[in-house]
């Protein structure tokens, strides 16, 4: 369906909070602005009760559309790699994606994105927030909006999770006016997922329960005299932390059968995909996996051979695994990046930043499978049909999981459109 090196360029990626994970949870998960100042755009949210999830795989630095989703036969711009057929007749992808090609019947491609900005920091901002953020207003990222839009009462786990290979996680500042309870929590795919989540040596469950009962007693007694949003936030943070500790096994991929672990592979990226699948099973609203290093200003073809190879097999296995388990029908998977790469191949055999005509891939719920939206010319220089930008994509992601992107968040007496009201979703892609 065709519708209307590792050599970086010096800019810094957005910083991620590095505080101890549990401290971050306690500080942020129940932040003051809390339930009392928010009006949920979906009311009781029947959509959220269906347990839908969004999984974003963010290829940081800017993957080349020529070496992935929109290969060209013109050698001057297309480069040395051929296009190969997929499981959908008429749709071809780069020969660097042989495993993913076999999952195209679960997927859709957008080949006509013009986002206008080729600076890493600005580009990351706009593709994550769906806004051109050159004003004083900071907008929440997609993960925060999904976590808010799909939240449901009593859900014991964080709604916005970023995976990482290993280490101590933190909480990022990426929810803006929605509040820190919707900011991302970083969780490692190794070392059991959530470090420092077990009781200290010598601390029994009985003793720990007594400590928390005393804390609850003291809080309740103080609340009879004085109530405050800060105290509510404090109380909620502790209770959320306890719930997270009780469910720490959810984040431990080593509990998967060895055959399942072997199916995904041993790379850091593969382990994060396996963790993402476990989180989708738990109906976590939003999960992001970051695969870094795609800024190939030199030796583009050599590096894409290795990097796309590292991506291709685990990603294809992830899609197939979700489908086999019946999870793909309630999960939207987005392969996101910052911008594309130039049609012109530079003297260092690299491709530079190119926001004028690039591509993304999606899979899963809410979209037409086996679809291609938009088209570039034979050299991949310009869009000839169906031009869209980051704003249309943001609307599309939300609509695919049932969030009304034309609605507003009511926060402290102010209305904030969930997505840019100047545009709408790519309707041709939505089921």
Structure write-up:
The chain is 30% helix and 16% strand. It has one domain: Alkaline Phosphatase, subunit A. A hairpin with a 6-residue loop joins strand 3 and strand 4. Helix 9 packs parallel to helix 10. With 431 residues, it is an alpha/beta fold. The strands form 5 sheets. The protein has an 8-stranded mixed sheet, with helices on both faces. A 3-stranded antiparallel sheet has the order 1-16-17, with no helix packed on it. Strands 3-4 form a two-stranded antiparallel ribbon.
List the helices and strands and how they pair.
Layout: H1 21-28, E1 38-39, E2 53-59, H2 75-78, E3 83-85, E4 92-94, H3 98-101, E5 107-113, H4 120-129, H5 142-149, E6 160-164, E7 185-188, H6 205-225, H7 229-246, H8 258-264, H9 268-281, E8 286-291, H10 300-324, E9 331-337, E10 340-341, E11 353-354, E12 358-364, E13 371-373, E14 375-376, E15 383-385, H11 390-400, E16 408-411, E17 414-417
Parallel strand pairs: 2-8, 2-9, 5-13, 6-7, 6-8
Antiparallel strand pairs: 1-16, 3-4, 5-12, 9-12, 10-11, 14-15, 16-17
């Amino acid at each position: 369906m065709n519708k209307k090196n590792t050599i970086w360029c010096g800019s810094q990626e957005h910083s991620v909070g590095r505080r101890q994970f549990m401290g971050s949870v306690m500080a942020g998960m129940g932040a003051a602005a809390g339930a009392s100042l928010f009006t949920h755009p979906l009311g009781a949210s029947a959509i959220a009760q269906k347990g839908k999830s969004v999984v974003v795989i963010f290829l940081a630095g800017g993957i080349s559309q020529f070496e992935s989703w929109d290969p060209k036969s013109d050698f001057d711009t297309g480069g040395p790699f051929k296009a190969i057929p997929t499981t959908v007749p008429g749709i071809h992808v780069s020969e660097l994606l042989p495993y993913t090609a076999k999952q195209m019947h679960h997927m859709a491609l957008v080949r006509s994105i013009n986002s206008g900005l080729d600076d890493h920091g600005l580009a990351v901002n706009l593709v994550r927030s769906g806004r051109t953020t050159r004003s004083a207003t900071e907008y929440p990222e997609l993960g925060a909006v999904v976590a808010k839009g799909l939240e449901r009462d009593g859900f014991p786990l964080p709604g916005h999770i970023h995976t990482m290979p290993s280490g101590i996680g933190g909480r990022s500042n990426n929810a803006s006016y929605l509040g820190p309870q919707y900011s991302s929590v970083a969780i490692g795919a190794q070392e059991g997922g959530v470090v420092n989540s077990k009781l200290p040596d010598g601390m029994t469950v009985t003793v720990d329960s007594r400590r928390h009962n005393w804390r609850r007693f003291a809080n309740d007694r103080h609340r009879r005299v004085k109530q405050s949003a800060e105290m509510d936030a404090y109380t909620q943070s502790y209770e959320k932390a306890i719930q997270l500790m009780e469910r720490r096994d959810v984040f431990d991929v080593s509990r998967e059968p060895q055959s399942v672990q072997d199916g995904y592979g041993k790379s850091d990226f593969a382990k994060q995909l396996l963790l993402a699948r476990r989180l989708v099973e738990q109906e976590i609203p939003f999960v992001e996996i970051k695969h870094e290093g795609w800024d190939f200003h030199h030796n583009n073809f050599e590096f894409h051979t290795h990097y796309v190879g590292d991506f291709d097999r685990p990603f294809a296995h992830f899609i197939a695994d979700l489908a086999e388990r019946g999870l793909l029908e309630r999960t939207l998977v987005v392969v996101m990046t910052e911008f594309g790469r130039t049609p012109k191949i530079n003297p260092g055999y690299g491709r530079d930043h190119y926001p004028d005509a690039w591509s993304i891939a999606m899979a899963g719920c809410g979209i037409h499978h086996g679809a291609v939206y938009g088209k570039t010319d034979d050299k991949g220089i310009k869009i000839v049909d169906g031009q869209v930008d980051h704003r249309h994509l943001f609307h599309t992601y939300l609509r695919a999981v049932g969030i009304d992107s034309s609605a507003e968040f009511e926060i402290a007496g102010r209305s904030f459109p969930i997505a840019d009201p100047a545009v709408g979703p790519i309707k041709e892609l939505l089921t």
